[in-house]
Amino acid sequence: MFDSSTTLADREFAKHLLFRKFRRQLFHASLRTILESLRPAMTVPEIVRCADGHFRRMIYGLGPYITDYPEQVLLACIVQGWCAKCTSHRTELDHGNGPRRCHEHTQALLQALDPKVLWEEYGIVGDLVPFTTGFPRADIHDMLSPDLLHQIIKGTFKDHLVTWVGHYLELTHGEAGAAIILADIDRRIAVVPSFPGLRRFPEGRGFKQWTGDDSKALMKVYLPAIAGHVPAQMVRTLSAFMDFCYLVRRDIITTDTLVQIEDALERFHCDRVIFEEIGVRLPDGFSLPRQHSMMHCPFLIQQFGAPNGLCSSITESKHIKAVKEPYRRSNRYEALGQMLITNQRLEKLAAARADFMSRGMLNGSCIRVPADEEEDIWAGLGLEDDRVHDPVELIDTQAAAREDDDGGPVDGDVLGEVTLAKRKVRGFPKTTEGIADAIETPQLGDLIRRFLYVQVHADVDLGGDELDINICPPCPGRLSVFPSALAVFYAPSDLSGVKGMKRERLRSCLSWRGGPARHDCAFVVDNDALPGFRGLAVVRIHLLFSFKHDNGIVYPCALVSWFVRSKDTPCEDTGMWIVEPHMNDQGLLVKSVVHLDCMLRAAHLIGVSGPHFIPRTLTYTDSLDAFNAFYVNKYADHHAHEIAF
After folding, report:
1. pTM (2 decimals)?
2. Positive or negative, the Cα torsion across 209, 210, 213, 217?
3. What is the DSSP string of 97-129?
């Protein structure tokens, strides 16, 4: 008979030293027992049938272990506050890396020193043995790899840097003054323009619990929000830290990338001393295990390869799918059995879908279009609205729903292309003059004529706005207007398809989802011989359209306004380029018509506020019209960081 009183500890002993020691020993003993069946095959090859049907001789081994810092402490059998990778003293973690830990070194110390000395001088728990001890080619200190999510993003960014900025504002401006400035920082975050795949924060940082996704999304817009409210050195600290995060996240890390990672880490260590100088970190300093783990990243990348986003966020996302969501579907009473049934049914549905796709049963639409265009398959059903129930119209509506997606992973082989949406804008004028009046651009016809001249005469050296309008071809009488265009490009460092392709939607419409107009920005290739942003330009899309010229060629085009660089170098503090709207002598935006082939992808601009407070009435839909200068946000995603340097 099961007697819980003799097998389970009472709550009064939950924090007892002996019980905590027992739990740690039980943890390592359990892992050792689970892996014990693999031990023979770690030295003697085992014949295994592989996925391709061939039989091969296999040798098993224990690989990298990705976890957050508290579990690293448990796995490495060290004292909280020490590094699990090296023997640096807990009070000197900010001075660099010490000799690396290993089982042999730990065993030698255990035999030579007293447990108290081991605890205080080396951070070793003398009465625990790591589960990897005894397994061939397995050392827990070598196996532990950095956790990008918990140690670097949530640990260093959210728990350290964001918190320290708040403490600085309180020390400098007092609690009331800091609240005013933090409210303005929240407003700056709230008015950031929309961007495909970028989460909006309508209330700024005002959410109760920070998830990993919250931290990663806020990182992308936080730097421009604090610029002007905090010292420049503090901004440079966050800029160096974010460069480090984006560099270690890349899909391919070369020797040059490692040099950039070490340079960003050096800049971060050099500039972060401002938090110590102003009294935020006195007398604690920067002996912080999570920040110290950044020093091990270059070596671990050489040992294990590019992380490419591999961290504990993957297992956390699976936990949501496998535990949290099935629990919400249950009635909360004896939920475990219901959760297991839910997961079994979801797996069966996924298997059925894979089988149907392999048989070609899910290709195309499930609605059959009648072969005879005059046949009305809905006749006699009493349906008054023939347009809504027309099968062709239904297919068109389904396509519109798909085009409402901002983007995501996609399979393909092209390096990059931008194509117009499949559906045209309904209820929009068809003639060039009518369209020009609708978008309040009377010079649209002349801009199209200059565009045509440049397209027909490929050897022309003059810019389109410098051409004599009298020598340009006539303007087409009708245009086809589209609400969006789809950019497909190679971005393996971001969430992408199996071949590294990603898609995102560029929008230009007079009303977005029943609200104000939306006109996205985009990168345009200006000079592909120059590196980074020096070879690119930023435009704002005011109209997406196409027309057929007399030569029979269909031209997909965009009416754009241009931005020019404020300086020839990026901002020294934020590391981002600053651009300004290009104005003519009359103070009007310089516009032109460009071919979609010269567009690369969407660009994200964030207004430069400086030390000034932004109006409370400003909204994110008006942000691109309200500022005189903008940061080119290279932190919008990892591909932007690779091209907008």
Report:
1. 0.85
2. positive
3. --SBP-HHHHHHHHHHS-HHHIIIII-B-TT--
